[in-house]
Amino acid sequence: MNQVNKIKEYVALYKASAGCRRCGYNKNTKVLHFAHRDPSTKYRDKYGKVVEPADMIKGKYRSRYGIETIIAEIAKCDVLCANCHGEDTHSADDMILS
User: Fold this and answer.
1) Residue 97 pLDDT greater than 80, yes or no
2) 3-state class of 35 per DSSP?
């Protein structure tokens, strides 16, 4: 197994074992996100651009980051399902209620 696949497997197992911090969901790791507890601590590349954990793992940057960097970045995060992450990210003012 190559390094990229080892990292993907580690992250999937991490997400599944943690589950969503708010609701406990853990059935599909593709809908579990890493949400930074403090957005000001997000990793930045040498140009100052924020690199999200998902991009470190599967995006165009995946070959640039080792497991140590990825582990350090996800340690700054909570695991949230897509719905809970959306609710945490967007204020109640952004919601459309019909």
Assistant:
1) no
2) strand
